[in-house]
């Protein structure tokens, strides 16, 4: 098990693919040997972003996306013939980057967390940790993001305090146990294919 604390002051900021806003890049991975770390070489990305006005989502062919509102409420994603309801915070929705999505804000701006991965390159999961308790973690990369105040977790028998806004990156070669001790966190999990 390898753990790395990613501090909020070290996160990078980048424009959305369509230029409509700015996201905070918490952690990502790109294909080895790629000349540039860009959308074409992306394997996965965990990021947060404010959505302050209704508008279109970026077109991201070949990318699977998970999203969750972590501040504010009332977000609805509208696509042709379907709707993704994120009105309640900490609800995870899954959609593909090819969908033509337009946001609707029913109660003002929101902050969301996104976990995206190149289709076929990784399996991803995104969930809120709100209640103390144990949960199994499979081998892979896991990101525990302290979304509102400090949070405490236990990995196997080791305790960690994650400062507000920071993220604990956990790289596992075998299954482990994660317990939320206190606070509120979002857990992003990535398992690379092969």
From TrEMBL:
Pfam annotation, one family: HutD
InterPro entries the record matches: RmlC-like_jellyroll (IPR014710), RmlC_Cupin_sf (IPR011051), Uncharacterised_HutD/Ves (IPR010282)
Q: Which domain of life is it from?
A: Bacteria
| Protein name according to UniProt | HutD family protein
């Amino acid at each position: 098990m390898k753990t790395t604390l990613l501090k909020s002051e070290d996160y990078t900021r980048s424009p959305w693919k369509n230029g409509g806003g700015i996201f905070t890049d918490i952690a990502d991975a790109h294909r080895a040997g790629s000349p540039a770390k860009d959308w074409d070489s992306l394997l996965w990305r965990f990021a947060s972003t404010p959505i302050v006005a209704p508008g279109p989502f970026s077109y991201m062919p070949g990318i699977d996306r998970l999203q969750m509102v972590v501040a504010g409420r009332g977000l609805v994603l509208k696509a042709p013939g379907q709707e993704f309801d994120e009105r309640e915070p900490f609800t995870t929705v899954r959609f593909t980057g090819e969908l033509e999505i337009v946001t609707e804000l029913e109660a003002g701006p929101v902050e969301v967390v996104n976990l995206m991965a190149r289709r076929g390159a990784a399996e991803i999961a995104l969930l809120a940790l709100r209640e103390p308790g144990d949960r199994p973690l499979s081998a892979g990369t896991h990101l525990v993001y302290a979304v509102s105040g400090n949070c405490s977790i236990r990995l196997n028998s080791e305790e960690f305090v994650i400062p507000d806004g920071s993220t604990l990156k956990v790289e596992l070669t075998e299954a482990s146990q994660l317990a939320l001790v206190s606070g509120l966190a979002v857990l992003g999990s990535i398992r690379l294919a092969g």
